[in-house]
């Protein structure tokens, strides 16, 4: 696919140094040249990069423009939104409180957030630990749009998060799947605030920004015009709307290449020299401990505490990406190499570029000598014991698998149409007739399937369709539901019955996507499938109303649209 091809092109331009594990000046020059090429070829507005090695920033540079109208150049002091890399600060903040004896990772969340009392489905246990929040395993609904609403008082509004999420149902038991979850990390940020006795903004300032000299880093976007040093953000040539949101600990921070170099170096100093710049070495090293070996639906990805884990030539990197309102970022840290890289851009079209560049620089350093760790992946159940079955599978979309009388399978998906499948490994099938590498295999933990893209497991799991008989009671629920909010993101919903599926479906009027739902209780419908944004529960218990996604909807006659 495009991203893989671009990464291969980027790597092809490098020659690896065989000197001490550092980057030579020619190699640094090659990095900057490749960034210039990506800016030009892909019409990316601006890029900033920070590379630290052996206690020293060895590359701090900006490229392109922070603002196309004013022609303000990007420098290492230009501010960008680092988006979800903020989650790594949440994780380290929680570990600081652990170090102070104020909480344990295995404490119940309810112990520290007394106003958080989410609703629980009949077959769920409702348990959540602090650790679950940091590993995306809590079961808190990730498809909760209320947290994306604009606010001018994010620090104050964060205090309402626990009560607002209490109106929602937990979608799965903890540990069912690591489903990426902004709401859970925002709740962890609130927990830090409550336990420390400081606001989220004040805690970051006193525990990170001031001690580490991160003078240009902010907890969230301030009101009014952009700060003078902050890059404008774009999608192509269009300026992206920007605002602070309720879930600011999940992705609100603003920083610079210079400040992120200080942050990465503080992590490395704590890790390698027990400097306590952030935490004792024994505690900060726990972020790399794999947290999802027990999670049966996670596929091959490895989740640490607040960081994702990747291997490079026997070296293990902790990493995180960020994407929000036109800002895209990627950070890799390899403790054994005393190395870190942070790359960011102010244009949505540069998302692949920043990931490719950060990954390629990490690979360049790691390839100079093999590391001490063998490549490992999350242990999975023996998929060979599970047989691919024909049928309909649902999640982010619908997938149909057919088997002919000779036993050969084919698959239909909206993404690539109707294609034959070829068995290439034990219960792993290659999709034929397309230009990129997509495979499909069954999951043993549930009746379901997952896709593999370029050899990597897709995060979402498609579950076997649960059909629904349309009873008179359910038929009364069908209709058009108008959102009772002026939130510009979401829009109205329609509940329909799809006879070809024999299932209920919810349709987003504004965005056009469809989610297949099943009955999970009296007047309760749940989205089928597993993963980010999947599993949401919709509550129809109040006559003529729907509650879900953080909002109330009112049943109204469908609007009449003209031709």
Structure description:
An 8-stranded antiparallel beta sheet has the order 3-2-1-14-13-12-11-10, with helices on both faces. Residues 1-20 and 378-384 have low confidence and may be disordered. The chain contains 13 helices and 31 strands. Helix 3 (86-99) runs parallel beside helix 8. The longest helix has 18 residues, at 25-42. With 563 residues, the protein is α+β, with helices and mostly antiparallel strands. Residues 1-22 form the signal peptide. InterPro entries: AmpC-like (IPR050491), Beta-lactam-related (IPR001466), Beta-lactam/transpept-like (IPR012338). This is Serine hydrolase domain-containing protein.
Helix-strand layout with pairing:
Elements: H1 2-12, H2 25-42, E1 46-53, E2 56-67, E3 72-73, E4 80-81, H3 86-99, H4 109-112, H5 130-134, E5 150-151, H6 154-157, H7 161-165, H8 182-196, H9 200-212, E6 234-235, E7 238-239, E8 244-245, E9 254-255, H10 257-273, H11 281-284, E10 302-303, E11 308-312, E12 315-324, E13 327-334, E14 339-345, H12 351-366, E15 391-394, E16 398-403, E17 409-413, E18 417-425, E19 428-431, E20 438-443, E21 448-453, E22 456-457, E23 462-464, H13 472-475, E24 479-483, E25 493-498, E26 503-508, E27 514-521, E28 524-527, E29 537-539, E30 545-548, E31 551-556
Antiparallel strand pairs: 1-2, 1-14, 2-3, 4-9, 5-8, 6-7, 10-11, 11-12, 12-13, 13-14, 15-16, 15-23, 16-17, 17-18, 18-19, 19-20, 20-21, 21-22, 21-23, 24-25, 24-31, 25-26, 26-27, 27-28, 28-29, 30-31
């Amino acid at each position: 696919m495009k991203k893989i091809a671009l990464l291969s092109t980027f790597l092809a331009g490098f020659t690896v140094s065989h000197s001490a594990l550092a980057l030579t000046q020619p190699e640094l020059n090659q990095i900057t040249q490749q960034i210039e090429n990506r800016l030009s070829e892909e019409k990316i507005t601006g890029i900033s990069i920070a590379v630290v090695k052996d206690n020293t920033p060895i590359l701090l540079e900006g490229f392109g423009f922070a603002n196309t109208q004013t022609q303000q150049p990007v420098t290492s002091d230009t501010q960008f939104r680092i988006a979800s890399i903020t989650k790594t600060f949440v994780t380290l903040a929680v570990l600081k409180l652990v170090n102070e004896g104020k909480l344990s990772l295995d404490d119940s969340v309810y112990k520290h957030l007394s106003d958080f009392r989410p609703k629980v489905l009949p077959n769920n246990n409702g348990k959540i630990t602090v650790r679950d929040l940091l590993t995306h395993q809590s079961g808190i609904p990730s498809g909760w749009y209320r947290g994306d609403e604009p606010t001018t008082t994010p620090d104050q509004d964060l205090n309402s998060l626990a009560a607002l999420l209490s109106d929602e149902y937990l979608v799965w038991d903890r540990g069912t799947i690591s489903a990426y979850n902004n709401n859970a990390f925002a709740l962890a940020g609130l927990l830090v605030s409550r336990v420390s006795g400081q606001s989220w903004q004040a805690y970051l300032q006193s525990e990170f920004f001031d001690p580490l000299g991160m003078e240009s880093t902010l907890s969230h976007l301030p009101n009014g015009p952009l700060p003078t040093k902050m890059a404008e953000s774009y999608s192509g040539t269009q300026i992206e709307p920007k605002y602070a949101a309720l879930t600011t600990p999940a992705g609100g921070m603003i920083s610079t290449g210079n400040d992120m170099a200080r942050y990465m170096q503080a992590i490395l100093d704590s890790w390698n020299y027990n400097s306590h710049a952030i935490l004792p070495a024994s505690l900060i090293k726990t972020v790399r401990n794999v947290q999802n070996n027990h999670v049966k639906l996670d596929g091959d990805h490895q989740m640490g505490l607040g960081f994702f884990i990747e291997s490079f030539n026997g070296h293990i990197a902790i990493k995180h990406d960020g994407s929000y309102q036109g800002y895209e970022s990627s950070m890799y840290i390899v403790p054994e190499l005393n190395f870190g890289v942070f790359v960011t851009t102010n244009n949505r079209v540069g998302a692949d570029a920043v990931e490719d560049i950060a990954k390629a620089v990490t690979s360049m350093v790691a390839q100079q000598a093999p590391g001490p760790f063998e490549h490992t992946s999350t242990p999975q159940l023996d998929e060979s014991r599970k047989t691919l079955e024909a049928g309909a599978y649902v999640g982010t979309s619908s997938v149909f698998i057919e088997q002919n009388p000779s036993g050969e399978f084919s698959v239909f998906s909206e993404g690539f149409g109707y294609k034959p499948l070829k068995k290439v490994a034990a219960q792993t099938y290659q999709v034929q007739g397309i230009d990129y590498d997509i495979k499909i295999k069954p999951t043993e933990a549930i009746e379901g399937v997952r896709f593999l893209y370029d050899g990597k497991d897709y995060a979402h799991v498609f579950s076997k369709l649960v059909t629904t008989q349309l009873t008179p009671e359910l038929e009364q629920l069908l209709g058009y539901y108008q959102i009772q909010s002026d939130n510009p993101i979401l829009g109205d919903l329609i509940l329909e019955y799809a006879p070809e599926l024999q299932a209920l479906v919810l349709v987003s009027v504004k965005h056009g996507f469809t989610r297949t739902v099943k009955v999970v209780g009296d007047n309760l419908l749940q989205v089928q499938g597993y993963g980010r944004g999947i599993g949401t529960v919709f509550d129809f218990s109040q006559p003529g109303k729907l509650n879900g996604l953080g909002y109330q909807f009112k049943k109204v006659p469908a609007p009449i649209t003209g031709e």
